[in-house]
Amino acid sequence: MATAEGDYTGSTRGKVEDNSLGRLLTLSDGVFAIAMTLLALDLRVPELPDPVTNTALLDELGRELPSILTFLLSFYVVANYWFSHHRLMRSVTTTHPRLLRHTLPLLLVVAAMPFPTSLLGRYASVPIALALYGVVNVLAVLLLLWLRHDVESFRLATAPVDPDEWRRFGWELRGNLVVFLLCIPAGTSSEAKGPTSSPCCSSATGPDRHGDAGSVEGRNDPEQDSAVAGVSAGG
Known about the structure:
Layout: H1 20-38, H2 54-63, H3 65-89, H4 97-112, H5 114-122, H6 127-153, H7 163-189, H8 213-218, H9 222-234
Helix pairs in contact: 1-3, 1-4, 3-5, 3-6, 4-6, 5-6, 6-7
């Protein structure tokens, strides 16, 4: 018999009989696992002409360092989101239509996480890349707080819950939210100060492995300067 949306509570009367909770957890774990795997796709083996020397290989690996650091950071971040979702759902024994609907935006953000990660690894010296990375993570933390609110509001946590641990979990999420909120203005305001001036996510920043077109154009070429000097002297 169908149950009205407002009738879902922590009691057995409101339980969904079609294993909705199990299917939700399976879908969530699958999305987290795939997102964590896709993060590694931006790690590439350097292509060098023969003969390959230690110096050349180390130089190319150094150029790949921003992508490696960004991968490690994002893997940790996504794994932390999975752990937070696990802590949130381990005490839930029944579900609610709103919990199902509100989980999908979280999975959407997690599935999209490889994109800002790749962007930050490839263009680490561009401030907007850091700002976009912060925005995506702010959305993820807000959605986790939203799910936490659903669990409390609809009394879905019927298993024994430690009140201190539950409050500590909420404050940990709010702390993460503050950190990623700082990444947004830091990314948008660090353009004039340089890419290394950002106070947050500093482990993900580094030299742009593809180079900065503006800095390349501003460099002095000795041969070009000599040629310009010769032309000026001849004139």
